[in-house]
Amino acid sequence: MATPHIRKCDSCGKYTLKEQCPSCGSSTLQPRPPKFSPEDKYGDYRRQVKKEELKEKGRY
Questions:
Q1: Cβ(20)–Cβ(28) below 8 Å
Q2: Rg (CA), the chain
Q3: What are the extents of the domains in the chain?
Q4: pTM here?
Q5: Consecutive sets of 10 residues in the chain, 60 residues long: mean pLDDT of each?
Q6: How far is Cα 25 from Cα 9, in angstroms, rounded to an integer?
Q7: How far is 53 from 60, CA to CA, in rounded Å?
Q8: Three-state secondary structure string covering the chain
Q9: In this structure, what are the phi and psi dihedrals at residue 15, rounded to the nearest 5 degrees?
Q10: Roughly how many angstroms between the first and final C-alpha of the chain, as a whole number?
Q11: Contact in structure between 14 and 20 (CB atoms under 8 Å)
């Protein structure tokens, strides 16, 4: 039997081991970052979006 992995609700942000959030009932995701690759084609775009998000929140 496989060990369950921790999951995060995309709507409310709570962590659980279930595929559906017990609080709000929406589906959950595994919060894993993408694998690092020095040949990342989309890294510049991802960093640009992250920078814009931080500017909107006043953290950059």
A1: yes
A2: 15
A3: 1-31
A4: 0.49
A5: 80 90 90 81 89 90
A6: 9
A7: 9
A8: CCCCCCEEECCCCCEECCCECCCCCCEEECCCCCCCCCCCCCHHHHHHHHHHHHHHCCCC
A9: -100, 145
A10: 45
A11: no
